[in-house]
Design brief:
By secondary structure, the protein is mainly beta. The chain contains 2 helices and 23 strands. It has 2 domains: about 25-135, no CATH class; about 140-384, Porin (Beta Barrel).
Length: about 375
């Protein structure tokens, strides 16, 4: 049987594709756990263990180091450990609480898993600028938010919001620094009545007037210290300026202890959690001089708080925080209740879409301000 040139090329291409398929199928990271060899992709490492995506399913699983006998990868990982430890190389094995990282088993560095900060897979082209930044700022992560809204119609609105939050985590400590500012205006037709100087009669006309509908700034500094795996101590201070609520300044220093009711590790940098807090606080509020009495409000408080975070499919994340600050001497009629909810969805690389809700109920506001204020912000966020 004679094979044509076209037929020979077809069979050669088929064999080449088959060889590539076999090679890609054979190439896989491996984790040996309790005598079972698992094949797939290692997506991260931490002092707790390895996160692994097996070939036989979807999603990742977390495997504790105590259940691991060996780990190996075909590709390189950026392994950050200790003070400034940094290795970009494949994993060559694991034994005696140390993971071997290097281009070969003989030249590998033994890294104690208790000193691991993070480990992420690298692409075929090596470390990117994001990987270099991760190494330089290994203890830091955070985000920058930007929101903008514009409407031109019978009523014109214009709004801008900016904010940033960064966290330095180096167990057992965590430092959080954050700030944001929101500003918005509204322009609409309004009826204005004046006295005509010639006739002395009232004259009504329609004019376009601009009103500031949002002018709010907020800043926070918080420090956490892990006492045990579940218990932690904290100290924080936050300040708020809100022109619409006639609030010249609100300061809330507080300190106390917290407990993690639920803490589920997703990978080296992600976890689902639910925590509660209790402590002491001092609430000080000063209102604008032009507002109705009282001129200021201050009291000592028992501080109650709760927080939660949950990772959804496709790396979407939802976070919630609540603060309840009742006065020690008048808890029924003097208190501050704050709720914040954030929902973030990745869009492209480090850029995501973010929806934020903030609701504050102040039971003792300025005399001419309402008790409740609700804020909704939609914008973009850039994480690092």
């Amino acid at each position: 049987m004679r094979m044509t040139k076209r037929g020979a090329m077809h069979w050669a291409a088929t064999l080449a594709l088959a060889a590539l398929g076999l090679a890609s199928a054979a190439a896989a990271d491996t984790v040996t756990s309790k005598g079972t060899l698992l094949k797939g992709k290692i997506t991260g490492m931490s002092p707790d263990g390895v996160t692994f995506e097996p070939d036989y399913g979807t999603g990742s699983i977390a495997i504790a180091w105590k259940n691991i006998e060996d780990v190996k990868t075909d590709g390189s990982l950026q392994v950050l450990y200790g003070g400034d430890g940094d290795i970009d190389a494949p994993l060559q094995g694991y034994s005696d609480g140390k993971v071997l990282v290097g281009t070969s088993a003989a030249a590998a560095t033994a890294v104690d898993t208790s000193t691991l900060i993070s480990a992420v897979p690298l692409g075929p082209d090596g470390p990117t600028w994001q990987d270099d930044a991760r190494s330089t700022w290994r203890y830091w992560d955070g985000h920058f938010d930007l929101g903008f809204n514009l409407q031109q119609a019978t009523t014109d609105t214009l709004g801008l919001s900016i904010g940033t939050e960064t966290t330095r985590t180096n167990a057992p400590t965590k430092l959080l620094i954050g700030a944001n500012y929101h500003f918005g205006t509204q322009t609409s037709d309004q009826q204005e009545t004046t006295i005509d100087p010639t006739t002395g009669l009232p004259v009504t006309r329609t004019v376009r007037k601009k009103t500031v509908i949002e002018d709010r700034a907020y800043g926070i500094l918080r420090f956490d210290y892990d006492i045990t795996e579940r218990f932690y101590g904290f100290g924080s201070g936050d300040v708020t300026y809100d022109a619409i609520q006639k609030l010249s300044i609100r300061g809330v220093p507080k300190a106390g202890v917290g407990y993690k009711f639920w803490d589920e590790k997703i990978d080296a940098d992600k976890s689902n959690f639910l925590s509660g807090e209790a402590g002491l606080a001092w609430v000080y509020e000063k209102y604008f001089e032009s507002s109705a009495p009282p001129a200021h409000n201050d009291y000592f408080s028992i501080a109650f708080g709760a927080a939660a975070g949950y990772w959804l499919p496709y790396d979407a994340h939802i976070g919630w925080r609540m603060d309840y600050l009742p006065a020690v001497d008048d808890w029924a009629t003097k208190y501050l209740l704050r709720n914040a909810l954030d929902f973030t969805v990745p869009v492209l690389g480090p850029v995501g879409a973010k929806l934020s809700f903030l609701d504050e109920y102040n039971n003792a506001p300025a005399g001419d301000a309402k008790n409740n204020s609700l804020y909704l912000t939609i914008g973009l966020t850039v994480g690092w």
